Amino acid sequence: MPIISVALGEGQTSTKQREELIRRLTSVAIDITKLPAQAFTVLINELPNDNIGVAGKTLAELRGSGAL
Questions:
Q1: How many domains does the chain have?
Q2: What's 9's domain CATH number?
Q3: pLDDT above 90: residue 48
Q4: Which domain range does residue 36 map to?
Q5: Which residues contact 68 (CB under 8 A, 6 or more apart)?
Q6: 26: left (phi over 0), alpha (psi -120 to 50) or beta
Q7: Can you give the pTM of this predicted structure?
Q8: How far apart are CA 68 and CA 66, in angstroms?
Q9: What secondary structure does DSSP assign to the chain, as a single string?
Q10: Which intervals hold domain 4-oxalocrotonate tautomerase-like (predicted)?
């Protein structure tokens, strides 16, 4: 069973956006592999913004400074 995993910073997406990600990622995977939808599992992991680092700073720091 193929697993598609996506990691996002907390608060980056709404429930509707995550649902759309699941639908579209599954659809693209079906188109490419020709496997049935039931074969795919999509995992969306929301990580705390202080557990993600970009350019030596946490995502929380970057958001707080207005850089993102």
A1: 1
A2: 3.30.429.10
A3: yes
A4: 3-65
A5: 54, 59, 62
A6: alpha
A7: 0.81
A8: 5
A9: --EEEEEEETTSS-HHHHHHHHHHHHHHHHHHH---GGG-EEEEEEEPGGG-EETTEEHHHHHHHT--
A10: 2-60
